[in-house]
UniProtKB/TrEMBL annotation:
Belongs to the iron/ascorbate-dependent oxidoreductase family. The keyword Cytoplasm does not apply. Signal peptide: none annotated. It comes from the Eukaryota. Residues 91-192 form the Fe2OG dioxygenase domain. Keywords: Dioxygenase, Iron, Metal-binding, Oxidoreductase, Vitamin C. GO terms for molecular function: dioxygenase activity; L-ascorbic acid binding; metal ion binding. This is OXOGLUTARATE/IRON-DEPENDENT DIOXYGENASE. It comes from Salix koriyanagi. Coiled coil: none annotated. Pfam families: 2OG-FeII_Oxy.
Length: 244
């Protein structure tokens, strides 16, 4: 338990399952979250048990970063922007190793892995092992996103929604638990640097697409996130052009 800390700014943090007394649900996820870019800066803080952990994590996370940059290049181009438009905004990278224990049948109805949310990221790359549990909201209905071997899932996060002036919408998703098998996943959260300007570029604003958001920095967004406890893109509301 040496990684357990209530400090949200810690470079590495173990988070336990908890009961949400207000909603009367149990959130079963246990996760180890840590900063991972650049790897050399943070690797000394990572677990040493099992002994292969640091090497395997460094290799995986370096490759994930490469995939992210390629994807962000393709996303930028699809928006008619320079290939490196989003890459230039990149800053940190945070990872969450998620563990969901199998649930007792009598508790299943009131137990979630993770409740419905969007990610406060540009994109998230999720690797699931073979046990299903991820669901995405599509046209008002929950859809299972079952694992496919050697395949990652890419979530659009709130910040890509803002940068793209709503051409991309952040994905509402949740993780369910089951009574038979524990489940694990690795979520890699891709963040801008604190001074990066988020908000739509001129090219994405016209009379058919008025600017949805003002310019704001990732630092301002992060401050806001601690003030408004929202689980979805309501985190962006105070940056809307129509906001008072
Ligand atoms: O474990 C999953 O399938 C989802 C995890 C997730 O949504 C997250 O870490 O943000
Ligand atoms: Fe998520």
């Amino acid at each position: 338990m040496k990684f357990y800390t209530p400090d949200p700014n810690s470079d590495i943090r173990l988070m336990k399952a908890y009961k949400d007394e207000v909603a009367n649900v149990y959130v079963a996820r246990e996760s180890l979250k840590f900063h991972c870019h650049p790897v050399e800066k943070y690797v000394d803080k990572w677990p040493t048990n099992p002994p292969s952990f640091r090497k395997s994590a460094a290799e995986y996370l370096t490759n994930v970063r490469r995939v992210e940059i390629t994807l962000l290049g393709a996303i930028s181009e699809s928006l008619g922007l320079e290939t490196d438009y989003i890459e230039k905004k990149l800053g940190g990278h945070y990872v969450s190793l998620n563990y969901y224990g199998a649930c007792e049948e009598s508790n299943l109805e009131l137990t979630y892995g993770v409740r419905a949310h969007t990610d406060p990221t540009i994109i998230t790359i999720l690797l699931q092992e073979e046990v299903p549990g991820l669901q995405a909201l599509s046209e008002g209905k929950w859809m299972d996103v079952n694992p496919i071997p050697d395949t990652v899932v890419v979530h659009v996060g709130d910040l890509l929604q803002a940068i793209s002036n709503h051409r991309f919408k952040s994905l509402v998703h949740q993780a369910m638990v089951n009574c038979e098998k524990e489940r694990m996943s690795i979520a890699s959260y891709c963040y801008p640097s604190s001074d990066a300007m988020i908000g739509p570029p001129e090219k994405l604003i016209d009379s058919d697409h008025p600017a949805v958001y003002k310019d704001f920095t990732f630092e301002e967004f992060s401050e806001q996130m601690w003030k408004v406890i929202a689980f979805d893109d309501a985190r962006l509301n105070s940056f809307k052009c129509s906001a008072a």
